[in-house]
Write a structure and sequence with these properties.
Elements: E1 9-14, E2 17-22, E3 25-30, H1 34-48, H2 53-66
Antiparallel strand pairs: 1-2, 2-3
Length: about 70
């Protein structure tokens, strides 16, 4: 989905870890905590690519669910 939207995303499984990258931003998580990698990636998209459709959707859903706008987005 992110690649299709033109975002520079890369996710790899290597040596029991998940390596996640979005542009120049990178993080590594234990494979057993894949949800943390997904959460990091979503937060990274919202913070660094707020104009993307995923960021707009995430902010809208978060706002409806909790009434707060995450990560200082507007």
């Amino acid at each position: 989905m992110l690649e299709k939207a033109g975002l520079p995303v890369d996710v790899r499984l290597a040596h029991g870890s998940i390596e996640v990258a979005l542009g120049k931003h990178r993080a590594t998580f234990p494979a057993a905590k894949a949800d943390e990698g997904a959460n990091w990636l979503a937060a990274c998209v919202v913070m660094h690519y707020p104009e993307s459709e995923m960021a707009k959707l995430w902010v809208m859903l978060a706002t409806v669910a909790g009434g707060a706008i995450p990560f200082g987005s507007s």
